[in-house]
């Protein structure tokens, strides 16, 4: 079989889709800090797109781009239909979720449980490709423990060996996937929460490195427990791209440095003062139905690890006794000036 070589370049850095995190307000905040990293929507089911409030689910601001739509589902026709609907929003990429370990997702044959059905994932990607000319990517784990979720008829419910990962990529790759985003842990589909699934199964970066060595023609992006700029740099010696998750949320100011990994890229030399000034403008222009808390909750980590962190968190935590815009203006007067004006190269 002729090897499929995608003409799409992998983003050097992307920010993972995170439930209750990567909404439009977080993406706006993240885009203040990184101009180049690929952002994602939260996971949206195909059924929700077909039957739900499409504007609420799919609308985004052009400043958020480049932006990928992540879809979950298990029926190729339904996912194809949802992707066709989403064409009207012109996302930069369509991503299929084959990695979510939540029992609410896997118990409905979506997310990580789909790793047990590589032929189905292959057919979903093929159907998706019929409905869009956008890049199509798959986010998945290195394996799964499906005991308690997969049917008893399965000969094996533990698919945790490198050979299982290789078989998955071999099969799904027949559909000409543009990028595999690989979380370097297995997913335990019963008995662990999504948070525990990010911490309990041991991390196996070497499996992802080996995948890239075995399939040098494929775009391989690594995900899982990556927290620092130095770690991103190290991983890029082995794979095509790096996806960061909770670190982007907990220590967001690091995002100002990730643009340097892109071709011709430079650090986004922005200060925290400038970020807050942009947030003031953003909040001033918001629809009155939007609660300021839903914006500011994403910025809790802006001063992580530096002087003023506790004061910032206190200032932006509701309830407030005055207008939130005034509180942010006050923060520019009360937070340490040397930290407010420090830049990523500082």
UniProtKB/TrEMBL annotation:
UniProt KW keywords: Flavoprotein, FMN, NADP, Nucleotide-binding, Oxidoreductase, RNA-binding, tRNA processing, tRNA-binding
EC number: 1.3.1.91
Superkingdom of the organism of origin: Bacteria
Binding site for FMN: 17-19, 70, 139, 183, 223-225, 245-246
Names of the cofactor(s): FMN
Marked site (Interacts with tRNA) residue numbers: 97, 195, 198, 313
Catalytic activity: 5,6-dihydrouridine(20a) in tRNA + NAD(+) = uridine(20a) in tRNA + NADH + H(+); 5,6-dihydrouridine(20a) in tRNA + NADP(+) = uridine(20a) in tRNA + NADPH + H(+); 5,6-dihydrouridine(20) in tRNA + NADP(+) = uridine(20) in tRNA + NADPH + H(+); 5,6-dihydrouridine(20) in tRNA + NAD(+) = uridine(20) in tRNA + NADH + H(+)
Active-site residue numbers: 100 (proton donor)
Record GO terms (molecular function): flavin adenine dinucleotide binding; FMN binding; tRNA binding; tRNA-dihydrouridine20 synthase activity
Domain DUS-like FMN-binding: 15-325
SUPFAM superfamilies per the UniProt record, alphabetical: FMN-linked oxidoreductases (SSF51395)
UniProt xrefs under InterPro entries: Aldolase_TIM, DUS-like_FMN-bd, DUS_fam, DusA, tRNA_hU_synthase_CS
Pfam family membership, one: Dus
PANTHER family attached to this UniProt entry: FMN-LINKED OXIDOREDUCTASES SUPERFAMILY PROTEIN
Role: Catalyzes the synthesis of 5,6-dihydrouridine (D), a modified base found in the D-loop of most tRNAs, via the reduction of the C5-C6 double bond in target uridines. Specifically modifies U20 and U20a in tRNAs.
Similarity-based family: Belongs to the Dus family. DusA subfamily. Belongs to the dus family.
Name this protein carries in UniProt: tRNA-dihydrouridine(20/20a) synthase
């Amino acid at each position: 079989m002729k090897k499929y070589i995608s003409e799409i370049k992998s983003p050097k850095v992307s920010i993972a889709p995170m439930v209750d995190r990567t909404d439009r307000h977080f993406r706006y905040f993240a885009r203040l800090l990184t101009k180049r990293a690929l952002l994602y929507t939260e996971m949206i089911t195909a059924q929700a797109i077909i039957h739900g409030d499409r504007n609420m689910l799919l609308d985004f601001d052009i400043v958020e781009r480049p932006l990928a739509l992540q879809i979950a589902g298990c029926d190729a026709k339904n996912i194809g239909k949802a992707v066709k609907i989403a064409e009207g929003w012109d996302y930069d990429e369509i991503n299929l979720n084959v990695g979510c370990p939540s029992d609410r997702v896997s118990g409905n044959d979506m997310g990580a449980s789909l790793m047990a059905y590589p032929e189905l994932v292959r057919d979903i990607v093929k159907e998706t490709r019929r409905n869009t000319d956008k890049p199509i990517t798959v986010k998945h784990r290195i394996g799964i423990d499906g005991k308690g979720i997969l049917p008893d008829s399965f000969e094996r419910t533990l698919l945790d060996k490198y050979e299982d990962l290789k078989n998955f990529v071999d099969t799904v790759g027949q559909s000409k996937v543009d990028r595999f985003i690989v979380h370097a842990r297995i997913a335990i589909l019963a008995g662990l929460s999504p948070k525990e699934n990010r911490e309990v199964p041991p991390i196996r970066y070497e499996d992802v490195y080996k995948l890239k060595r075995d399939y040098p023609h494929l775009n391989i992006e690594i995900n899982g427990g990556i927290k620092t700029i130095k770690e991103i740099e190290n991983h890029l010696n082995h794979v095509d791209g790096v996806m960061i998750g909770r670190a982007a949320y907990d220590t967001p100011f690091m995002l100002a440095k990730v643009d340097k990994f892109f071709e011709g890229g430079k650090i986004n030399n922005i200060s925290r003062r400038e970020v807050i000034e942009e947030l003031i403008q953003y909040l001033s222009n918001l629809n009155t139905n939007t609660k300021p808390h839903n914006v500011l909750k994403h910025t809790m980590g802006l001063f992580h690890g530096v002087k003023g962190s506790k004061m910032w968190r206190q200032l932006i935590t509701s309830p407030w006794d005055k207008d939130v815009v005034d509180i942010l203006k006050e923060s520019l007067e009360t937070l340490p000036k040397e930290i407010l004006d420090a830049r990523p190269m500082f």
